[in-house]
Amino acid sequence: MSPIAFSLPGDPGTAVAAALYPADTDRSISALLVLAHGAGAGHFHPFMTAYATAFAERGVTVVTFNFPYMDARRKTPDRAPVLEDAFRRAVAGAVAHRHVRAEHLFIGGKSMGGRMATHIASALDKWPEAPRPSGVVVFGYPLTPPGGARKQDRVSHLLKLTVPTLIVQGTRDSFGGPDEVKAALAGAAAPLTGCPTPPIEILRVEGGDHSFAVLKSAGRSQAEVHRDIQDRTVEWFRKVQKGSEQF
Fold first, then answer.
1. What is the pTM of this model?
2. Which of 22, 31, 46, 150 could make an SS bond with 144 (beta carbons 3.0 to 4.6 A apart)?
């Protein structure tokens, strides 16, 4: 089924475009994933549409959306509070959509979109009037800008996460591979005493870059790599659902 276009709630200056990918009814796992795009491309980027379609085919209803700066055709992303607010409105709009039928809510995104998902999941006191998320999934966590020093703290908020979180990270990711993400988390937690370990799992994509592209020498086709990620992510959704409350 083709995605269903709709607009998220908001005033005329902040309403943004969204799309609903209904789950294959024969394979439905009664889950909704609200998926945010990365910094440089909107929600109709090929990565976004491919993954949204793949998850829908595997029984997950997906809603994608644009952040305000993308709909305004600005190149520079909005500041984090604006992105976070847009994400929360996307969640509320997705849950309220008349074609959404799901018992569990997941949030996530590609790169920056995934980081924003962890931001709002780590601040549940600001959660909108919607079911709380059962889990968070990040496709390529942007730990450190390529070729530059880390100027922002992109780790400490992760320690506040209380919902299961899956970070899918390529070993050739120029923003930081799985080991770098683990080391950064350990470094942030080290000065703290009595801090509970956040429920974060890291799925390694061997040979994958920031978008999971692999070299020809990897011995796997690109299609195989993406199918494996998509299958294992849905397996993770199912695992999380078993231990989570329904809407």
1. 0.95
2. 150
